Amino acid sequence: MDLLIKALLQSVLPEMTSRRIGRLTGKSHRVAQKWLSDEMPVPDDVFHQVEAQAELLKNSSFPADLDAAIAKATAAGLHPEIIASHLAAQYKKVTGIEIE
Q1: Each residue's pLDDT expressed in tens, for the chain with a length of 100 residues
Q2: Host domain of residue 71
Q3: How many folded domains does the chain comprise?
Q4: Residue 44's pLDDT is what?
Q5: 48 shares a domain with 68
Q6: With b meaning 16 or more CB within 10 Å and e meaning fewer, what string describes 31-61?
Q7: Distance CA 32, CA 18 (A)
Q8: CA distances from 77 to 26, 72, 80, 85, 88 (A)
Q9: Per the domain annotation, does 30 fall within a domain?
Q10: What is the reported pTM?
Q11: For the residues of the chain, what is the DSSP string, one character each?
């Protein structure tokens, strides 16, 4: 996989899996696995889609806001499993699927 697309994917999917890449790009996870293993090149339209998401994320306060919310919950004494459970519930709310 080209280093640029890999870096872009890691910037938008810090917990990158082939299933997440597939869902992000609208392709199957098997296709994403082939991209990751260099069996297939990443198409230009997929590259541009990921590039656009990376730009949106770069201009967003979302990662910092999420970090701040987690830090606030931790400082309030909430157990890490409670925080993680709420994050998992939000993941399901956003994606409609259980977190991997």
Answers
A1: 888 999 999 999 999 999 999 999 999 999 999 999 999 999 999 999 999 999 999 999 999 999 999 999 999 999 999 999 999 999 999 999 998 6
A2: 62-95
A3: 2
A4: 94
A5: no
A6: bbbbbbeeeeebeeebbeebeebbeeeeeee
A7: 5
A8: 39, 9, 9, 15, 19
A9: yes
A10: 0.83
A11: --HHHHHHHHHH-TT--HHHHHHHHTS-HHHHHHHHTTSSPPPHHHHHHHHHHHHHHHT-SHHHHHHHHHHHHHHTT--HHHHHHHHHHHHHHHHSS---
Tokens of residue 40, six digits: 């297939």
Tokens 């004494």, residue located:
77
